[in-house]
Amino acid sequence: MPSLPSIRFCQTACAVLLVLLMQAVSAHATSRIKDLANIEGVRQNQLIGYGLVVGLNGTGDTLNNIPFTRQSLQAMLERMGVNIRGQTLRTGNVAAVMVTGNLPAFGTQGTRMDVTVSALGDAKNLTGGTLLVTPLLGADGNVYAVAQGSLAINGFAAEGAAASITRGVPTVGRIANGAIIEREIEFALNRLPNVRLALRNPDFTTAKRIAAAVNDFLGSKTAEPIDPSTVQLSIPPEFKGNVVALLTEIEQLQVEPDLAAKIIIDERSGIIVMGRDVRVATVAVAQGNLTVTISESANVSQPNAFSNGRTVVTPSTRVGVTEDGKKFALVKDGVSLQQLVDGLNGLGIGPRDLIGILQAIKAAGAIQADIEVM
């Protein structure tokens, strides 16, 4: 029977080993193939249509300014047996809209889909409106769905005689399950002799790892990487006519994706995103700001009482220049992302200056990463 100290030693060793294993797992995060790639051919299709929204509380299109709304309203009423040719229309309760939606993959006839309704003319608000029957067309010009229903608006607008307020976008609405699918897109998935996986982030290493994971699971050379964004799967004999079962098993396999070293910069908002594999050679960085301050004031000179002088306004301008310089910060060779961030933060700079520093380090050839400016 082991002694008490040895038992405690074993417990401590097991705890340390468990921590090391958890760190190793977190350092090499894996993802499902389902989250890394799409099945080629299993996709949505975009639909678009033109329609009318009625029932607005005087916030619709101005018919005298928007001729297509007036023409659409006349054509719709004529189809219903109402002739208004030559009549003056002054209603403000109608708005011309564009209706968009995505036809889901394998959407069957009679099922419903969501649509988005956007004002096309000068309508101020679509709150309370109802979309009339609107055919939704695909890229081939065929009608795949028909939309109709009451709009749900997230934004609102209110105004008075001297002030107004607008929150969100009151000229865009959504109709949940507002369209009925009328035509299906034929795609015989179970009859395919092979299936291709399209990687969402193309990469040679990731494509090879996906193929290796599939081949290890099936026990045969079934998957083959064709290019950085495509892995082709040959359907094994046991899955002939049942491709869905094969994809169900494959998409749950865990693969560690390989990411390229990249830095994304959005200069408009000052956002910087750096990948974990960004490395920097030994480089010294210094940063300084030159600030020019200009202030103006008006000096008023008035004559004495009962004199013939006049009041004179003379401008006064003050210009000041200050320069804030930061000391050199040394960034060592091959530092990690955390060390790079800590070193640059040591300069006490903001995101705007950090963008310029990263670009300067890249120009010096001291950073091993691709910088993409959005």
From TrEMBL:
<dbReference type="InterPro" id="IPR001782">
    <property type="entry name" value="Flag_FlgI"/>
</dbReference>
<dbReference type="GO" id="GO:0071973">
    <property type="term" value="P:bacterial-type flagellum-dependent cell motility"/>
</dbReference>
<keyword id="KW-0969">Cilium</keyword>
<keyword id="KW-0282">Flagellum</keyword>
<keyword id="KW-0975">Bacterial flagellum</keyword>
<dbReference type="Pfam" id="PF02119">
    <property type="entry name" value="FlgI"/>
</dbReference>
<keyword id="KW-0574">Periplasm</keyword>
<comment type="subunit">
    <text>The basal body constitutes a major portion of the flagellar organelle and consists of four rings (L,P,S, and M) mounted on a central rod.</text>
</comment>
<comment type="function">
    <text>Assembles around the rod to form the L-ring and probably protects the motor/basal body from shearing forces during rotation.</text>
</comment>
<dbReference type="GO" id="GO:0030288">
    <property type="term" value="C:outer membrane-bounded periplasmic space"/>
</dbReference>
<keyword id="KW-0966">Cell projection</keyword>
<keyword id="KW-0732">Signal</keyword>
<protein>
    <recommendedName>
        <fullName>Flagellar P-ring protein</fullName>
    </recommendedName>
</protein>
<feature type="signal peptide">
    <location>
        <begin position="1"/>
        <end position="29"/>
    </location>
</feature>
<dbReference type="GO" id="GO:0005198">
    <property type="term" value="F:structural molecule activity"/>
</dbReference>
<comment type="similarity">
    <text>Belongs to the FlgI family.</text>
</comment>
<dbReference type="GO" id="GO:0009428">
    <property type="term" value="C:bacterial-type flagellum basal body, distal rod, P ring"/>
</dbReference>
